[in-house]
Amino acid sequence: MQNKVVKINEACQTIQNGETVAIGGLTIHRKPMSFIHELIRSGKKELHLLTLGGSIDVDLLIAAGSIDRIDAAYVGLEILGFAPNFRKAVEGRVIEFNEHTEYSIMAGLEANLIEAEFIPSKLLIGTDILKSLNYKTFRSPITDDLLVAYPRICPDVAIIHVQRCDEYGNCQINGINA
After folding, report:
1. pTM attached to this predicted model
2. PANTHER family, from UniProt (predicted)?
């Protein structure tokens, strides 16, 4: 098996402009900041960013002009409020922002994992998020309940900060698992 350990700049070179990049961690916790800095240094543009809860990572990428779309449940600096570059870019319509719930992102990733077109759920029924994401609804063939079809989310690459890994790509995360 080939050794999967590479330098950050080499890994960053595999990302192409316009690709969808999923970033792990939650708000200020376990964000791959060295990789974020390398993305900025390498001049990547028009990235589509996917994250559950973005923070300084997203704000720096926006300030650098690296992102043109973000799908997230939250972007902010926790007790310090909204991330300023994010807020300015969304209000000025410089980037496209699609607000999700954490569940809608996780369901979309799960659909991709199991090679399904969507994951069905009753969550989001009657919410504005359902309307803004333009998800499809349908009737259950078993109960006739109204369900939401959470579509598959297929990032091109995922960047996840871990405490330990080996040359085969196995990793271990200590502490919180966001």
Report:
1. 0.89
2. ACETATE COA-TRANSFERASE YDIF (PTHR43293), CHOLESTEROL RING-CLEAVING HYDROLASE IPDB SUBUNIT (PTHR43293:SF3)
* pLDDT tens string 23-67: 998 888 889 999 999 999 999 999 999 999 999 999 999 999 999
Distance CA 36, CA 159 (A): 9
Domains of the chain: 8-117+154-172 (3.40.1080.10)
Cα–Cα distance, 24 to 85 (Å, whole number): 20
**SS3 for 95?**
coil
Looking at the chain, how many residues does it have? 178
Closest CA to 70 of 27, 22, 129: 22
